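Bumping with the actual sequence this time:
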Amino acid sequence: FIQTRNEIKEKQRLITDIYEAYDTTFLNIRGYIAFDNLELKESAINQEEIIRKKAIELKQITSTAKDQVIYQDIIDFADFYYINTLPGRIADFEKGGKQAIAEKVTASDTPRVNSFRENNSLVMKDMDDELEDNLSKLTKRQSNVQIAAVVIFFFFFIFMQYSIRVFFKNIGRPLADLS
């Protein structure tokens, strides 16, 4: 149970780091477009490396088909966003400003990003539920072990009480036979 909990917590940590890197990307690219700040653009682009490193770490600890789907969703979205979408949006912005990308972002990018973010929330909720389920199983198992220990102690106490009674009864018998 503890090992399962630690595995789930590690997956949660990695997925949270990945989702935070995506959020940083989204916010920084919007800041770049709003304020034409090149540092924000570079920061947004650099988040891809963080995301891919964390995704590789996640892949190394995936143990279920569900984990593989989560990993693949992260990689697919990284490919969509960093390879197919972001370079084009940056180029459009640099050529024509905010108006050049407004329609494209609204029409295609925003729904996909929102869908990905909603999926992220569901994944984290599922992991929280998995942790709660694991905790529930652990609690139930500990409760059963405690009940078994009390029952064993009770039977041991009864056995010892009976043994002591027989012992004292037999101690007095030889003296009673002599008199």
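The tokens above came from a reply further down the thread. Residues 98-178 form the longest helix (81 residues).
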